[in-house]
Each structure stands twice: as C-alpha cells, then as structure tokens.
Design the sequence.
C-alpha cells in the first residue's frame, strides 16, 4: 500500500522523537540565554526570575514539539507527484492518546500553579519592621510620603528613596484616575486606585537608581510619568532624611532659626 | 425625487439622518423645558443624543425596519417577494439585502476595510515609536491612535469578519436556504459600518484616548471623543448579539435532515460555541459603556469614589465580557482551521467529539477567568488564586485541540497551499501565544509583566498570529466559493511568507522589551529600549506592506481570476457540493446528510446526498404554526 | 426592540407553488425558531440586568454603602402596589392568550387592552415616584444604582408596551386566530420576562 510506504510503521515516530528532543534542548538553551530581565534589585526579583526560568524550561519544549511535528509532517507527508487524488488513512482518533494529552498538561498546569502559589506567598509575605511609605499617584507625577521622624507632617519626596535590605510596605493611592506603580527592577507592581489604598511589599537588596514607571494608561502624560527609585545604604538614607526634615522646617533648632531669619528679611525690608 | 425619498435606500437614509439630528435637538429642548432649564441647548448634549439617535434614523431610512414597522402599524402581512434577496449588481451590496451570502460578503469586505484603517493607524504608532522621544504626535493623539487601532481591529474586524465568513458558509454547511431571521441579519450587518464610522469620526473632535478598555474613571473624564467609542460599542455589540442569536437559531432549527449535532462540521460547532458566548457575555460590555455614558453625560456616580461609587466594578463588568470576547475572537478561527486541516491533510479530524467538547469546555471555563486581567488592580487578594487556576486549566481544552490538529496532519497527504500555510502558521503562532498565556496565568510573573509590552506581544500572537491567520486561511479557502474565481496561488504564498516572517520580527521582541520593563501604551520610552523598538517598527512596516499583496491578489482574482469549479479542494462538506458561487437560494432541494463531515480516506464515504426534483427528499412540512400575524 | 419585532414577524411566506422562493428549510428542532430567538434574546437581556445587579452588588456590598442612603427613604408600599399592578398585567395577558386560542375575540381584545393599560399605569406610577423620591442619581452612588436599575427596567417596560401596543392595534384590526397567535405569544413572553424581572428588582432595591 502507498499508505505504508508514506507513513506507516514506527520509523517516522522515532525520527520525530529524535528531532523533537534535539530541538527542545536547543530551544530551552536559547530561551535561557536571552537576557530577559533588568537588574535584580529586590528579594522578590530573584523568586520571580527563577519562576520565569522554570516556565521557559517547561513551556519551550511544548512549542518546539508542536513546531517540529508540523515541520516534520510537511516534509515527510507532503503530497508527492502522483498522489494528488489520494487520501490519508481514515484514523478517527485514539482514546488512549487523547486521555494522555488531556491529563499530562492538566497535571503539569496544576503543578505549575502550586509552584506559582508558593512563590506568591513568598514574595508577598509580611516582614518584620517594615518601613511604610505612602505612594500618591496623580496625573502625571508620583509623590512619596515618609513618616516624619521628628513627628509632624510627613516628609514628601518626588523621588523614591529606599534602604538596602530593609523591607518596605507601600500604601498606594491615586488622586484622580487609575495609575500603576511599577519598579521593573523590583519586579513588583500594583495599581493606584482612586478611593482605595492598595499595598505592595518589596525588600530592595541592591544599591543603585532604578526607574519607577506608571503602567496603567492614565491620560495624555502617561508615557512621561516616570521617576527614580534610589536604593541607599542606611547611612545615606538617614542623611537624606535629615536633609528633608531640615528642609521641611519641622526639625532641629538651627534649621528653624535659619529659615526664620530668611523669612524675617522681607519683613524688615517692608 | 419624492419617490426616491419615500422608498428605502440611500436618499431616504440621508433625509432621515437630517431628521435625526433635528429630532435630537427637539428632544433635548423639550427635556430642558421639562426640567425648567433654559431651553438653549449646548453643542455637547446635542452631539451625544445625536450619536445615539441618528444611527437609528439612518438604519430606518435605509429600510432596515420597514417590515417591522409595517407589522407594528397593524397592516395586513404581505408575502415576501424576495426582492431584497440575492445580488443582482454591485449596488445590491450597498443596500439592505436579506441573502446571507450577500451579507457575508458585505461583512468580510467592510471588516477588512476597517482592518486596513486600523493597520494604517498602527503604522503611524510604530513610526512614532521608532525612536524614543516625541516625533510625530503628542501624547493625547498617540493615546488616540492605539485606542482607535484596538477598537477597530477588535470590534470592527476580528469579531465581524468571523461573523461574515460564517454568515456565508454556515447556512450552506448545514443545508439551510438562509439564516433563520434574514432581515435581522441585514440589520446586524448595517449596524457595523455605523459603529465603525462613528469610531473613526472621533478623529474630527479628537479621538477617544483611554484605550479599548476605556477604564473608568479615566474614560469618564476624557474629552467628548470618548463618547464616540462608548456609543459606537453599543452598535457593534447589538450587531454582535443579533448575529449570534441568528446563528444559534439557525443551527438549532434549520439543519438538513440527518445532520445530527455530531455530524456538524467543526466550523458550525465553533460558531455555535462562539454565539453562546456572545449572547451571554456581550450585554456586559454594553452595560459597562452605559455606566460610563451615564457618569460622563449625566453626572451619575457609578465610578465616583467620593460618592460611594466603585472604580474596580468597571473592570469586573468589562472583563466579564472582554475575556470571553477573547474566545469570541478565537473559536471561529478554530472552526476554520479544523475545516482546512482535515481537507488539506485528506484525513478525518482526529478526535472529532473531543474537538467539539473542548469548544464547549472553553465556553464554560471562559466565564470563570475574567479577573486574571486584574491581578495587579488592587481587588481582593484571594480572588487571584482561583482565577490563576482556572486560567491555567483553560489551556487544557485548547491543548486538546492543538494536539488533535497535529494528529490529523500525521500520515496525511498534505496539500500545503495558501490556506494550509496560514492554518499551519496559525498552529505555531497560536501555540506560542497560548504558552505565553499560561505564563501570564502565573501570578508572581504577571505581577511583573502586566501592562507591559509582554502583554502586547502575547495578545498579538493570539489575535494576529492566531485569529488573523485563521481569517486569512478562511478567506483563501472559501474565496473560490464566494467569488466563483480562483485566487493566485503564488501571490498567496508570497503573502504568507512575508506576513509570517515580518510578524515574528515585529512581535517576538516585544516579549523581551516587556520583561525588561517597557510599559505598554506609551508614546515615549527609556533609551535602553531604543534598538529593539527600531527593529520592531521596521518589521511592522513590512508587515503592513504584506497586506498590499493580499489586497492585490483578492481584487485582481475577483475581477479576472480563472473560474473556480464547484469543489476545487475535493471537500465533503455541503458548501462545496453546490456551484461556485452557490445558487441564489443555496439548494434546489435541501440535501440529506448521511455521514460525518470529514470522512476522507474512507472508501466511498459521502457527507450529504442530493436528489433531483427535491420533492422526494424534502422532509414533511413542519407542523408548527409558523405564520406570525 | 428591533430584535423583538423581528422575532415576532420574521418569516418567509412560502405559498404553495411559489417557485422563485427558497426551498423550505428542514425543521431540525421541535422548538419554534421565533420562540427560540425570543428566549435567547431574553437570556441576553437577563445578562444586561446581571451587569446592573453587579454594579448594585459592588456599591452596596463591596463598598458597604448605607442603604438607602442617609436621609432618604424608598416608597416601599407604593412600589408594592405598583408591583401588584404589573403582576396582574401578566394575568390579563395570559387571559388574552387563552381567549384567542379559544377563538374568543372579545376576551382577547379586552385582555390585551387591559394588559397595555396596566403596563402604562405601572410606568406612570414609576415616573411619579422619580419625581417625589427626593434624591437624584447625581447625589450618590446609591441614587445612581436606584435610578439605574429601575430606569433600565422602566425602559424594558416601555419597549414591552410598544410591542403590546402593536399587538393591540392588530387585535382590533382583526388579526390573529386560534391557529395563528404566535404574534401574541412571543411578545407575550417578553412581557412576562419584564414582570418577573421587576420582582427581582423590587426585592433587591426596596425590600432587602
């Protein structure tokens, strides 16, 4: 039979399996070689990056398998001269095979979900001694509010300053429309919703300056709603904070005097 | 002239449009007097009421409601003379026509026109994005460009083009002379250009710019252009619901004798499932846009946080439609691909019943995953976990379909021509889109990439590599049936390969820039993404040009291609058993179905039996009283 | 509205010996196409209400807004009477349908006319309630969803009334018979749906 010579027997299956294994290995290697991520600057980042690598290792072979089967079929089973009026074998199905390709992906997916759930618990776990920072989003700027170490009005900053290795809990709000607070280097994001306070936990673990972006369309200035997140050492942060406190005028006596003097000047002139 | 103005048609439509504008003015004036306000009307409310009322007047003028008004006025019913059925010249395509074949072509041509506009808009966006910084357009205009791009391609291309293809072939496939409600079918079609023109007209006042998702409260605080979307969607949605209802009734009540549900071609199954989704889900987007309209125009408080309104409610209601809508945009494509792969592999579909059941499984599961669009929205945290699981599980029925198609290819006799190339291209690209979809179910990862370019990549792999490839496959496959001409195979293959390569170069890098931290919907981006974006933009222009090959092929083949035989693909399904193009009422007598639709390779197998004379095979006339008075 | 009209009437008259028409379609289901169309249309209508109830749920339960809003009162008793009016219109409609099935034209006409009048009364009382209820949709989200749900329902009553009005006109012009009453039955189903929906709206808005 022509059918036998075209595709019967086990040989094409073996060929196919060999191609699929080699191609999958290449595909996974390629997937892992691509430089996907920006720098890792939080403990959350490494958990998420590992999850992504696991996803690549599990899913690339599936894509490669599908592509390889298609390529193989086109090469091996393509109509040849003289076969124009022939039909393939009337195979209507195979119950065992169908059960396999229902059950195996289902088990894989449940396993992945379990893993993802554990990873989620890990990255969202509450930490001891979290610093609380208010994130206020409005069209088209961020502002960050820190509790004032001297008491009084909170310290407000346009840039975000964080301390290396110290966990932070952000309380995020929006004044007008929905925004989304995203620091790609931390891998974490949460929408800022008018009327709601949403929360996000991050433990920065790498010094440096990273972009803060708005990820939810918020109007004509959406693309430009960017800011910097600075991860500092405790020392640098304290120095910065002291400066802010000074500038806000709520702190030490000398600062108050200086400002008072400046303020008095116009009065005396008048 | 008076005659022309009185008879249904374009003259009367124009007249009625004028009347509609005046009617809107009168309505607001009366309402303002009723409320004791100064009757002088501001332009904005006049515009809003006109947007709602004028399309109805237009449709009335065109003649979409004539028969029903006739009935409502209590006049005696007159027998249908079928004067509005079938195409006699090109003019028939610009009038109310009740022939599903005419309507199908109207749908396909109209929706492709909107696709070209939507694609051109995308070119403009990519031109702006080729370099960081602002070059061509300002922020608001850019937001308008991608909003119009998405709205047109979703509501006026993918959803209706599938409705159009199915409109043409579905009644033929099940052995029906037409759809169940031909006049409703005509109305469904004519609401589409209304919606599309309205969305495009927003450019006259400044386009709507809050994305196709139109999240409140951004959408309720936008300039008036937003309302062209809000109201346009109502018409597109109404069209969609009416068509789905029509398909369901047609499939349930008008199948040929012998065509049990498990003898239906999978395209019919696919449209059955899709129509269920449309009928159940589409009202939610209609409602969500009504909320926006009421908040915007009348100062209601659905989404005003300060007055107990709930901002996240918009997203729940919106995605309760718009996630099933993803399957509305994909399941008919599954149907098309099933037809093509079986015919071009010369083998029965592997696991036909599982293919049908997996469609129904997707319909059911499709309603349980909406909140995965809201994983970072700030909704209650616990909702995320069940949504993650259902989102992952919905990949199982989809996987069944992909593996079954592969098994159908295995050991077949593959005719790798243009429709088959697009079907196979779809298989690979959709698998990739499906896999990134599973990755997007995984919560920790999606917290990072949601609203990034990774999403843009994913959705284009699903909607372009997925849906659009199946649309191309379907258009090439049924082109001989619809036009009676063969398309140019060489140009078809050229079109496929250019599209396939340019598509991948355009959208694959978006995965990488997304994970690296580039948010979506931005007109400007950080310097680090510049190289990739330049590559993406260049490839996207090639992708845009590739559609010109398609247009040239379609137009020149339609005008002067070689005549097509009735059944150029040696297919078994009923639409290929009649002439190309089919006779005006599809069949002289309704065929009898005696076997499955894909019995390729089974010696002597047939799907439908035709007998001349008709009377002997025609089933007994239904006993149901069918005259509605 | 258009769809409803279509369902009630969309039908090809295939007279015997009619040669330029289509071949008669096979009837593959015992369900009447127009009836099925109306049922599917009602499913999608139920979903429209579902979306509005979702909004209600989010405002009242998720947001925990006080219900009714502080300082406002809902006229539960008057609305209850109005409920009775609307429900009795379902009974009169049923009476009309039974009458025409028995070829009792006078009963049919009286029943359909009474149904229309009861429906109109309901709508009138509802509008009257809007005038006197004492808050506006612009005041707070509770007002928004009150007007949203009752207004949506009122719009459906209005559409149903237009259908009933057409049926009434046709009834008085001598249409319909014991054999041909689909044009009464199918708009009738829509009217029953509108009534049942009101019970749900009344229960959630006024009583709960």
Sequence:
């Amino acid at each position: 039979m022509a059918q036998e010579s075209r595709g019967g027997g086990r040989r094409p299956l073996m060929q196919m399996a060999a191609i699929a294994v080699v191609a999958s290995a290449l595909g996974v290697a390629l997937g892992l070689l691509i430089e996907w991520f920006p720098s890792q600057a939080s403990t959350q980042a490494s958990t998420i990056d590992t999850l992504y690598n696991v996803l690549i290792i599990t899913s690339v072979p599936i894509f490669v398998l599908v592509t390889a089967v298609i390529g193989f079929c086109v090469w091996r089973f393509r109509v040849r001269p003289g076969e124009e009026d022939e039909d393939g074998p009337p195979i209507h199905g195979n119950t065992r095979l169908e059960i396999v390709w229902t059950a195996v992906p289902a088990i894989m997916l449940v396993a992945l979900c379990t893993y993802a759930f554990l990873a989620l618990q890990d990255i969202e776990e509450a930490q001891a001694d979290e610093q609380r920072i208010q994130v206020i989003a409005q069209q088209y700027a961020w502002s960050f509010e820190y509790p004032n170490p001297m008491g009084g009005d909170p310290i407000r900053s346009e840039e975000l300053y964080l301390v290396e290795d110290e966990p932070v809990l952000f309380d995020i709000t929006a004044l007008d429309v929905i925004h989304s607070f995203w620091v790609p280097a931390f891998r974490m994001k949460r929408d800022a919703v008018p009327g709601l306070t949403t929360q996000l936990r991050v433990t920065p673990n790498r010094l440096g300056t990273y972009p803060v972006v708005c990820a939810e369309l918020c109007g004509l200035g959406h693309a430009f709603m960017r800011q910097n997140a600075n991860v500092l050492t405790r020392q640098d942060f304290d120095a910065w904070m002291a400066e802010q406190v000074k500038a806000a005028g709520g702190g030490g006596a000398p600062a108050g005097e200086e400002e008072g003097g400046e303020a008095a000047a116009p009065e005396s002139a008048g | 002239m008076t005659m022309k103005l009185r008879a249904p048609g374009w003259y009367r439509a124009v007249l009625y449009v004028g009347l509609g504008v005046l009617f809107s003015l009168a309505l607001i004036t009366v309402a303002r007097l009723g409320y004791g306000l100064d009757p002088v009307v501001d332009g904005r409310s006049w515009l809003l009421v006109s947007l709602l009322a004028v399309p109805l007047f237009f449709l009335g003028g065109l003649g979409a409601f004539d028969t029903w008004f006739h009935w409502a006025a209590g006049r005696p019913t007159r027998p249908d003379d079928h004067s509005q059925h079938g195409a006699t010249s090109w003019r028939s395509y610009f009038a109310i026509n009740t022939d599903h074949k005419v309507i199908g072509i109207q749908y396909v041509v109209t929706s492709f026109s909107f696709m070209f506009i939507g694609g051109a808009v995308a070119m403009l966006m990519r031109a702006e994005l080729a370099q960081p910084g602002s070059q061509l357009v300002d922020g608001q205009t850019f937001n308008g460009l991608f909003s119009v791009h998405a709205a047109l391609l979703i509501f006026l291309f993918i959803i209706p083009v599938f409705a159009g293809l199915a409109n043409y072939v579905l009644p033929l496939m099940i052995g029906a002379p037409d759809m169940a409600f031909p006049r409703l079918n005509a109305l469904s079609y004519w609401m589409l250009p209304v919606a599309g023109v309205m969305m495009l007209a927003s450019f006259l006042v400044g386009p709507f710019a809050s994305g196709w998702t139109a999240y409140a409260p951004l959408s309720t605080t936008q300039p008036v252009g937003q309302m062209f979307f809000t109201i346009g969607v109502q018409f597109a949605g109404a069209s969609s619901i009416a068509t789905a209802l029509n398909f369901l009734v047609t499939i349930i009540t008008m199948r040929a004798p012998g065509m049990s549900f498990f003898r239906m071609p999978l395209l019919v199954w696919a449209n059955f499932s899709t129509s269920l989704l449309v009928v159940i889900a589409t009202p939610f987007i209609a409602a969500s846009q009504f909320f926006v309209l009421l908040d915007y125009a009348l100062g209601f408080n659905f989404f005003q946080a300060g007055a107990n309104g709930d901002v996240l409610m918009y997203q729940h209601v919106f995605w309760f439609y718009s996630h099933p809508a993803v399957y509305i945009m994909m399941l008919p494509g599954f149907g098309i691909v099933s037809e093509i792969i079986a015919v071009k592999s010369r083998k029965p579909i592997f696991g036909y019943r599982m293919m049908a059941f997996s469609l129904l499984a997707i319909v059911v599961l499709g309603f349980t995953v909406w909140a995965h669009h809201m994983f970072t929205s700030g909704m209650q945290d616990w909702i995320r976990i069940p949504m993650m699981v259902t989102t992952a599980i919905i990949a199982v029925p989809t996987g069944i379909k992909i593996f079954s198609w592969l098994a159908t290819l295995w050991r077949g006799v593959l005719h790798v021509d243009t429709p088959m190339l697009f079907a196979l291209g779809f298989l690979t690209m959709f698998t990739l889109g499906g896999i990134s979809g599973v990755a997007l179910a995984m919560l920790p990862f999606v917290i990072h990439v949601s609203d990034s370019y990774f999403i843009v990549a994913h959705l284009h792999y699903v909607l372009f590599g997925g849906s659009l490839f199946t649309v191309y496959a379907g258009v090439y496959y049924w082109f001989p049936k619809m036009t009676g001409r063969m398309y140019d195979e060489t140009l078809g293959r050229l079109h496929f390969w250019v599209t396939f390569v340019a598509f991948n170069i355009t959208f694959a890098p978006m995965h990488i820039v997304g994970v690296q931290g580039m948010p979506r919907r931005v007109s400007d981006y950080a310097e680090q993404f510049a190289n990739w974006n330049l590559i993406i933009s260049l490839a996207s222009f090639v992708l845009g040009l590739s559609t010109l090959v398609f247009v040239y092929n379609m137009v020149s083949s339609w005008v002067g291609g070689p005549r097509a035989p009735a059944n150029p693909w040696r297919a078994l399904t009923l639409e290929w058993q009649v002439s190309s193009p089919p006779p005006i009422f599809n069949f002289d007598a309704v065929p009898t179905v005696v076997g499955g639709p894909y019995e390729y390779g089974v010696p002597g197998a047939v799907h439908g039996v035709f007998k001349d004379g008709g009377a002997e095979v025609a089933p007994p006339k239904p006993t149901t009283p069918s005259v509605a008075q | 509205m258009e769809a409803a009209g279509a369902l009630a009437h969309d039908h090809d008259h295939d007279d015997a010996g009619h040669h330029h028409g289509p071949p008669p379609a096979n009837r593959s289901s015992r369900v009447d196409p127009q009836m099925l169309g109306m049922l599917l249309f009602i499913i999608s209508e139920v979903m429209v209400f579902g979306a509005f109830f979702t909004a209600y749920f989010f405002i009242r339960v998720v947001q925990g807004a006080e219900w009714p809003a502080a300082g406002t009162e809902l006229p539960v008793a008057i609305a209850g009477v109005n409920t009775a009016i609307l429900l009795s219109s379902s009974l009169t409609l049923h009476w009309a349908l039974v009458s025409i099935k028995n070829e009792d034209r006078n009963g049919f006409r009286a029943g359909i006319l009474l149904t229309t009048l009861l429906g109109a009364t309901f709508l009138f009382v509802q509008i009257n309630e809007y005038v006197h209820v004492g808050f506006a949709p612009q005041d707070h989200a509770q007002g928004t969803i009150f007007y949203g749900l009752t207004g949506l329902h009122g719009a459906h009553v209005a559409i149903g009334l237009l259908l009933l009005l057409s049926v009434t006109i046709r009834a008085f012009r001598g249409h319909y018979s014991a054999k041909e009453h689909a044009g009464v039955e199918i708009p009738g189903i829509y009217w029953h749906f509108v009534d049942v929906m009101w019970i749900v709206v009344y229960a959630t808005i006024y009583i709960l």
Notes: Chain B touches chain A through 90 residues (CB under 8 Å). The two ends of chain B are 33 Å apart (CA to CA).
